[in-house]
Amino acid sequence: MTHREGCPVGFLFARKGVESCSRLCYDKNNILKESGSKERPRKFLKKQGGELTETEKKKTWSLNRMVVLIMMAGYAALLILLSCMDYYLVADYQNRGREREMGLLSEAAEYVEKAAKDLDEILYDIYAKNKNFEALTVLQEETEEYSNAYELFDAMKSRLFLQENMHGVYIFYGAFQKSLFQCDKEIISFDSQMEIKDRLTVLLSQSKNGGDWQTVVTADGVFRTLTYKRGNVAVCGVFSMNGRLDELERTAGDGAGVSIVEEGMLYHAEGKEDTLGIAAQTKNQEKSFRYWKDNRYVYGRRIENSSMWLCMSIPCRLWTYMNVPQLLLLIVTLFSVLAVYWLYRFIRRELVWPLRDLTETMNRIRQGEWNARTGSRGHLKEIQEVGETLTAMVSEIEKQKMRSYEETIEKQKAQMQYLQLQLKPHFYLNGLKTLNALTLAKDWEKSQELILHISEHLRYLLQTERELVTLGAELNYVRNYIELQKSMTGRPVVCGIREEEGTADYLVPTLCVQTFVENSVKYAKLGAPGRELAIRVCVQQLLTEDGIYLDIMVSDNGGGYPDNILEEINADTRKGTRSVGIHNLKRRCALIYEGKAEYNFYNGGGAVSELIVPVINPDRQGIRGETDECIDS
């Protein structure tokens, strides 16, 4: 099966588009003539044994449930949309919440890093540049030593008052046996000051020259100390982390816990952090972490250039998952499920069941039970009106149905008979005139040959009272016609027929090929006398979305159609003054195929005539006396 493959000329079949072949073409055979039943199309009758066809079952199911399926499909799309919106909004809200909480922790960590950096710059400046610090690195007399220590202490105190993140200063000199210190009393109590001093004294006895950080925990909280030591002197700065930790807890919300982890030790913890595995988590991460455990979100941020981690845990509550608008949207989504269930039951009760009852009633009427009536019609006004209208229309439909079918069939039958009668005299006269000429010429051999061809010709016409014949019979008739032309005119005519395998048994309109061949003979002007007229008949199948079509093309090597003839036969007119055969063929095809036949006439190296029609198999009854339906195969 091909699309124009192998044909010399052709045109695009889809120029108009082929209508769906599912439309029914009723004829007289579709009307039941039995006295005990009303006339109705066969397609709607039950098969033998009372079983409905698969197509009928599918259509019945669609009628009863189409509205519900559409509603459920629409709601499913809406529910998916609402669910996606809920998920997206909640996820976005949670992500923004997590980012905000991590941002708070990072901000606090940056504050600690800045405080440590400022303190380190101050102490390193003293360690590297202060002459009093340099003098105290070696043992001195007591008076000179005290003078240098006091001047150094004054310099550090001035820095204490000016530096926001510096809450205490310590000086150790005289082989670390003597010390001077001052702290912010509002932040560090005296007991904590002494505890810090003792811890620093122990550290100095163990540490090497240079800077060293230390975390000290007292009753007042957590403090970070930085000590710079050289020789017999050391300076130390202290800043408190309590204020920043408390502020972070307040900002994070109720139930938030803030802790410090250093070298696996937890500081500023309230107890619950031990169960969250925070200390273990800091050993496996490099810079930050975030996870969920025991219904709490846990965050960690490492302090730059140190082994200290600032950690925070926040309890998960409903408002941490979603805000009020998102909660309302979720509630609306849940309520919509209940609303749709109620709507589903309402539609089934008020629409689907009454429609099913109406369908069953119409099926009973279709089978001849004209006294059938609908039962429950629900409470919808429109459904009730449909039932009442159905009852009122049954009797009128019964009367008009028969009348309409009979009028249509008789009209089409009369038109077909008229067209066939109009064609037959045309062939009779041509044959008789030719036979008369040969008889006058006393060419008895050709006369006998011509009589045989004419008899075959007339036999085909007289026996073909049906609208459709097989393609093989039509092509044999064309071959006989060519031989008839040779005998009649002595003109060198050859006809090559290319027929796709499997098409010989297809049914085609009577004289559909012969009409085109006759036009080729009629209009072919070859110029040089004795030049052979070559006619080519090409028959092939076309596969389209609407089924299989038969493409019949007749072309010749003559001068082609005259312009006026070509314009007339291509025009969409019901009749013309010339080319009666083509116009009759077009009218017959219009009746047989109901608008699905395609024609094309043009000149391309000669006259080209083309007819494309839906395939009709001989094992199915033909159209209008041959088939019940034209159904897309």
Brief summary of the model shown:
The chain is α+β, with helices and mostly antiparallel strands and 633 residues long. The chain has helices at 54-129, 131-135, 142-162, 190-206, 242-252, 278-284, 318-321, 324-366, 381-440, 444-463, 471-489, 512-523, 563-570, 580-593; strands at 168-173, 178-183, 210-218, 221-230, 233-240, 257-262, 265-267, 288-293, 296-302, 308-315, 468-470, 493-499, 507-509, 533-544, 547-556, 598-603, 607-614.
What structural keywords apply?
Heat Shock Protein 90, alpha+beta, disordered C terminus, disordered N terminus, 2 domains, 633 residues, 5-stranded antiparallel beta sheet
Low-pLDDT ranges? 1-50, 621-633
Mean of all residue-level pLDDT scores: 77
Strand share of the residues?
Answer: 15-25%
Radius of gyration: 53 Å
> What class, by secondary structure content?
alpha+beta
Strand order of the largest sheet: 2-1-5-4-3
Number of helices: 14
Instruction: Tell me the helix content.
Output: 40-55%
Span of the ends, CA to CA: 15 Å
Shape: elongated
Integer count of domains: 2
What characterizes the major β-sheet?
Answer: 5 strands, antiparallel
Write down how many β-strands occur, each being a DSSP E stretch of 2 or more residues.
Answer: 17
